[in-house]
Amino acid sequence: MTQTQTVPVAADLDADARARTFTWTDPARHAHLLGRTPGLELLQRMAAGELPPPPVMDLLDMSGIEAEPGRVTFYLQPQEFHYNPLGTVHGGVLSTLLDSAAACAVHSTLPAGLGYTTQDLHVKFLRPVTVASGRLRCEGTLIQRGRRTAYAEARLTDAEGRLVAHATSSCLIFETTPPA
Question: What is this structure's pTM?
Answer without folding.
Answer: 0.89
